[in-house]
Design brief:
This protein is of the alpha/beta class. The chain folds into three domains: 154 residues, 4-Layer Sandwich (Glutamine Phosphoribosylpyrophosphate, subunit 1, domain 1); 344 residues, 3-Layer(aba) Sandwich (Rossmann fold), CATH 3.40.50; 67 residues, no CATH class. The strands form three sheets. Strands 1-2-3-7-8 form a five-stranded antiparallel β-sheet. A five-stranded parallel β-sheet has the order 11-10-9-12-13, with helices on both faces. Strand 2 and strand 3 form a beta hairpin. It is globular and about 70 Å long. The protein starts with a strand and ends in a 5-residue tail after the last helix.
């Protein structure tokens, strides 16, 4: 009776904590991890308890003894938690739309957050799209007393994990490193297989999802169920790769081919699913895959996190290459890469065999040009920016200076690869990747678990010297070696593609009328929020085909679609 909890998530080591609590005199009436969590907090307190947890969670706990409310979010930000003040009250929820039930809810648009959104295609923590409402940072506790005073503190941070890891590097043989990661992954997957409902896995046929499926196959006595979707458009179909991996592992595999019309039907629902403007276009296949999977199971495992922890993004290879190049040479290379238009790059890459041809090659070359032109200091910022000067788009908006602007990170992490991975893990991972998956899956009542983001694996990854992450010009070296023990190299070796859709083509074709209406001078000028001129200029260039501006235009389109039903 001491504590009351409302809780979203899963604690995967509840079975380990329960006997310890029973030995201290705690008595249990059921078998849920929720009961273990609340009894542990009653026994040890909030901070000491969450430091022991392995899991994903967001919860609010009212302690009747101290008359304090604690809001807690898991270490990596897998589960969301919004909070703030309004009309003399502290309010909190997992979704912004929950606040709409308050009789006096009058949200005010945060123009500064809108500017940040237009740069990044997501609203970065701790901000939300509404003024006065924040996201609780991953690994943090907000404690609120009866007077409404709020104090926040960290119980875990990527910064401390990186600092500890760099101070105690894992200098061992290749074999020992591979063995250690395989054991950690096996345990993380095994813990996440405990469920009293049907369970499956997302499978794209790439390194991360294939590794998770392989670990499930090793740890599960039952047949492993895997799910993938494919697209009809050439160059965007990963289903055959997933099918080949599934056949090798012997999983019960289900795939769905999605027509352009089916994919486009999702778009009107995105503003409600995501609550605030969100513009990673892979949100569309993420939702469709979640919907397919939910027709068969209620819990799915995902491979998210592998790129951030083990240097798997194309930009990580760019960073490694750029750091070894004198600045004048980098600027010269930038000129060469940037001068060629999309059509020329498409022709150049068409000379490669299809299996070695990267998706969106022209976009990747222009990103590389931006990195080499910007140099090491602001290279990351240039790579992640949909718009380089978002303040010029938002009337009265001033973009907040978050971690991607922090020069102190460069001093703390001397290796450019380390810096890029660190920034990815504290920004792009929670605010884009995990947000995308959480909202898409929860919209269809599917629970997604992410074993690679077990905090023990995160801490281990920061102990790894660079040779275990990038070798021979390829990222995720160590993760690949674990996978090769279970799946032939030939089945998973191909250019990194991401979860892409042919958005640029669609905006010139079947989505053109929809986009043109949202990007009209009249619609852009509504409420005096946006400056239409630069947006209209990019739209015109995109339609002409001189540049592929879908990455800049999609955030504007998603904001326009989001604001309309809310009268903003």
């Amino acid at each position: 009776g001491a504590c009351v909890i409302t809780y979203n998530g899963e604690v995967y080591n509840a079975g380990d904590l329960r006997p310890e609590l029973e030995a201290r005199g705690r008595r249990f009436r059921g078998h849920s991890d929720t009961e273990v969590l609340v009894e542990a907090i009653a026994e040890w307190g909030v901070k000491s308890t969450v430091e022991r947890l392995i899991g994903m969670f967001a919860f609010a706990l009212w302690d009747r003894r101290t008359r304090t409310l604690s809001l807690v979010r898991d270490r990596l930000g897998i589960k969301p938690l919004y909070f703030g003040r309004q009309n003399g009250r502290v309010i909190f929820a997992s979704e912004l739309k929950a606040f709409e039930v308050l009789p006096d809810w009058k949200p005010e648009l945060n123009r500064d957050a809108l500017a940040a959104y237009l740069r990044l295609a997501y609203v970065p923590s701790p901000h939300s799209i509404y003024r006065g409402i924040d996201k609780l940072a991953p690994g943090h506790i907000a404690t609120i007393d009866v007077e409404g005073k709020i104090e926040t503190s960290a119980f875990w941070s990527v910064e401390e994990a990186a600092e500890r890891g760099k101070g105690a590097p894992f200098n061992v043989s290749d074999r020992e490193a591979i063995d250690t990661l395989e054991l950690l992954l096996g345990d993380a997957v095994g813990r996440r297989l405990v469920a009293d409902v049907p369970l499956g896995a997302f499978l794209s046929g790439g390194i991360d999802s294939s590794t998770i499926a392989a670990m499930m196959r090793m740890r599960s006595n039952a047949a492993v169920r895997t799910y993938s979707i494919g697209f009809m458009e050439e160059g965007f179909d990963e289903a055959p790769h997933a099918r080949a991996v599934a056949a090798h592992l012997g999983t019960a595999h289900t795939e769905l081919y999605v027509s352009p019309a089916e994919a486009r039907e999702v778009i009107p629902h995105l503003p409600m699913i995501y609550d605030e403007p969100f513009a990673d276009s892979s949100q569309i296949p993420a939702y469709l895959l979640s919907k397919l999977t939910r027709e068969h199971v209620t819990v799915a495992l995902s491979g998210d996190g592998g790129d951030e922890l083990f240097a798997g993004y194309t930009r990580h290879r760019f960073a490694r290459f750029a750091s070894s190049m004198p600045a004048p040479m980098g600027r010269a290379l930038a000129c060469g890469l940037g001068v060629a238009g999309p059509a020329l790059w498409d022709r150049v890459f068409s000379l490669l065999p299809a299996e070695r041809r990267p998706k969106l090659a022209a976009d990747k070359m222009h990103k590389a040009a931006r990195l080499f032109r910007a140099g090491e200091e602001s290279g990351y910022l240039s790579l992640v920016s949909a718009w380089d000067d978002p303040d010029a788009l938002v009337n009265g908006g001033k973009e907040p200076r978050g971690p991607i602007f922090d020069a102190g990170i460069a001093r703390a992490l001397s290796d450019p690869l380390d810096r890029m991975q660190y920034l990815d893990t504290i920004t792009y991972l929670p605010d884009d990747i995990l947000t995308k998956v959480d909202r898409a899956s929860m919209a269809v009542a599917l629970e997604v678990r992410v074993p690679i983001l077990d905090h023990r694996i995160v801490e281990f990854s920061w102990r790894l010297p660079a040779r275990f992450k990038m070798r021979g010009g390829k990222g995720k070296w160590l993760l690949r070696q674990v996978l090769y023990r279970h799946v032939p190299k030939a089945l998973v070796e191909r250019p990194k593609s991401g979860f892409a859709i042919p958005l640029g083509q669609w905006l010139r074709g079947p989505l053109r009328a929809w986009a043109e209406e949202l990007l009209s001078d009249k619609r852009l000028g509504e409420g005096g929020l946006l400056n239409p001129a630069p947006i209209r200029a990019r739209w015109a260039e995109h339609l002409e085909g001189t540049r592929n501006w879908h990455a800049s235009l999609w955030p504007v389109l998603m904001f326009q679609a989001w604001r309309s039903p809310r009268g903003i």
